[in-house]
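User: I'll paste a sequence; please echo it back and then give the predicted structure.

Assistant: Echoing your sequence first, then the prediction.
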Amino acid sequence: MPRCFWCNDDPLYIDYHDTEWGVPLREPAALFELLLLEGFQAGLSWITVLKKRERYREVMFGFDVQRLAALADEEIEVLMQDPGIIRNRLKLKAARQNAQAWLRLDDPVALLWSFVGGRPRVNHFQGRGEVPAVTPEAEAMSRALKKAGFTFVGPTICYAFMQASGMVMDHTTDCDRYRELAH
């Protein structure tokens, strides 16, 4: 099956590409998890985070937003000792801060989807050189999230989040998933 240029031959990556990436996601808990995971990715490759996702789910209470909002500094220090996750104190503190910011939003799903007018934006990119790293919509999302108190939500992270959550459909035209999702 032809896949997007970024998908390597790792079975975990192939499954993620074939079943998750670019599929419109509107479930609040799943969007929250993805937003945090995209923040954990900052400076790293997505496959690194993907390989650690199950451990994150275990040690971060299934990404329960209420529980993460109440994460104590001592718990962050314990997490810093866990080799199964990315041990970055700033990113772990960001998980708590972002959970608190999420809880302050009236409707986080509506806010996030508002940057694409509430429905997936289907792009028709033919290859790697056409797919942007940042768009004006991602810049606007980043500004709004930062204003709401989020961190690790720069424009590049926001665009990767938009791609992964299906807010934008960036499977390239030579990818089999393009035909499935470009409706």
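Strands lie at 121-122, 168-169. The chain has ten helices and two strands.
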